[in-house]
Amino acid sequence: MAGRSEGTSAGASVRHRVVIVGGGFGGLFAARLLKRAPVDLTLIDRVNHHLFQPLLYQVATGILSEGQIAPPIRSVLRRQQNTQVALASVTGFDLDRRTITALRADAVQFELPYDSLIVAAGAGQSYFGHDEFSRWAPGMKTIDDALELRARILGAFEMAALEQDPDRRRAWLTFVVVGGGPTGVEIAGQIAELAHRSLPEDFHTIDSTSAHVSLFDGGKEILAGFGDKLSAKAAAELERQGVEIHTGSIVTAVDRHGVDVKGADGEVTRIAAQTKVWAAGVQASPLGKLLAEQCGVECDRAGRIPVLPDCTLPGHPEVFAIGDMMSLDKLPGVAEVAMQQGIYASQTIKARLRGHDGDRKPFRYRDLGSMATISRFRAVVSFKGIRVSGFPGWLMWLCVHLAFMTGFKNRFITVVQWGLAFIGKGRSERTLTLQEAVARVAIEEAGGRPFLLRITAEDAPGGTEGKPPASSEP
Ligand SMILES: Cc1cc2nc3c(=O)[nH]c(=O)nc-3n(C[C@H](O)[C@H](O)[C@H](O)COP(=O)(O)OP(=O)(O)OC[C@H]3O[C@@H](n4cnc5c(N)ncnc54)[C@H](O)[C@@H]3O)c2cc1C
Fold first, then answer.
1. Which ligand 1 atom sits nearest the alpha carbon of residue 333?
2. Whole-number pLDDT of residue 38
3. How far apart are CA 204 and CA 160, in angstroms?
4. By residue range, what is the domain housing residue 338?
5. Which residue has the higher pLDDT, 370 or 460?
6. Nearest to 18 by CA among 81, 84, 88, 95
7. Which of 326, 359, 392 is the C-terminal boundary of a domain?
8. CA of 25 to the centre of ligand 1 (A)
9. Is 363 in the pocket of ligand 1 (CB under 6 A)?
10. What CATH number does the domain containing 418 carry?
11. Given 66, 302, 411, 417, which residue has the most CB atoms within 10 angstroms?
């Protein structure tokens, strides 16, 4: 397949055409590696930004702005002359014809041909069959989620300040976090810090330090993947901050006013809480299932498509599925896996173009460990059997996160914001708007899909159904 280019509806391309679906960790690292390759590359994403998901909780709690963790993909790749960026949602694949189908933001559909395809569409939140919970307990996967949560968390303190009824005020000041993995631990710790350090001086009619932050997890300990010792340290530190940890507890119902929790003894307890955060469970992108149907494989329970040891699909060596949406050797759904697979996929494409198709070794993951922050200056790090916690762990967390953030300007501003939030008490990103708080639910109730602007193909001036984008401007 090296260097092959068939006729395209764009007509002009004679170079090998690479299409990358998704500008997250996997897609972006794959794209960067193709910077000087003799290919025509199109990176297509349904959002215009590359999202640094590990810091979403800091947007949700007012430390960082969304722009700092989500630079425009177009800007990140601006120096790649061989690359087009397209803002559109991929809806289908034809692996035999080697085309993908996508919808622009105005609902106009188009096709894009490829010679090599890298699909890195990530994963979304899983509510374990209870999608109705999402209405009251947003997950934390996107910028929309983080801004909605920020509005709900900060809005809860505002509501409490005006509430005369003590029970209702308590419900506004009770925050439930579901899921004791790194995301749940980080957001619970930051809500507690917000209540205890940042807000007390701003509220005169309520005591923000009386807020309850409850973290529920069905397992026997939080941060289970970090080992018993780090898990216990993290739990002790969280409790010192005022987070109540309930392990062996499964949230069985979520509604506007609270949650039902089934404890280890089987008893169900009702907790009145206006603000709920869902940080439990992931479901791979539905694009995995679409690909699986075409190449005759089955996705696992989390919707991940099984890939061959070289990250390609059975019968389709020109199609790679990488990152959170694939399953291979029980690799974890972490950024490092996606980045390393993105690099591997692009290296394979480059090797094939040089005619070294058969030389490639299977993908090997280099485990660089995992980490989670507990509070300011406290983190836990697990790396090749070495366990670090407290301030040394936090310093490691700081260096790694700064190293992997995209853009020097973002790194610089982030350091300043962290200084303000961690050394001082300030959180500069505390603007909340009604739209952020209610828009998702309102759009869903109106029967709309948030991605689309609800303009039909006929409404769109010069509808371009069936044609690929003519330029990098979608
Ligand atoms: C809150 C949170 C905290 C995390 N913390 C850590 C951490 O500390 N360390 C760590 O290693 N990992 C962490 N992770 C996991 C890590 O972010 C993921 O493993 C990583 O992002 C996976 O990369 P990916 O490229 O597979 O998918 P993603 O980075 O999710 O990118 C997928 C991209 O595909 C796009 N896309 C999806 N569907 C379509 C479509 N139909 N059409 C077009 N585009 C589409 C999306 O818009 C997105 O840009 C965290 C995740 C979350 C949610």
1. 19
2. 97
3. 11
4. 16-125+283-359
5. 370
6. 84
7. 359
8. 6
9. no
10. 3.50.50.100
11. 417
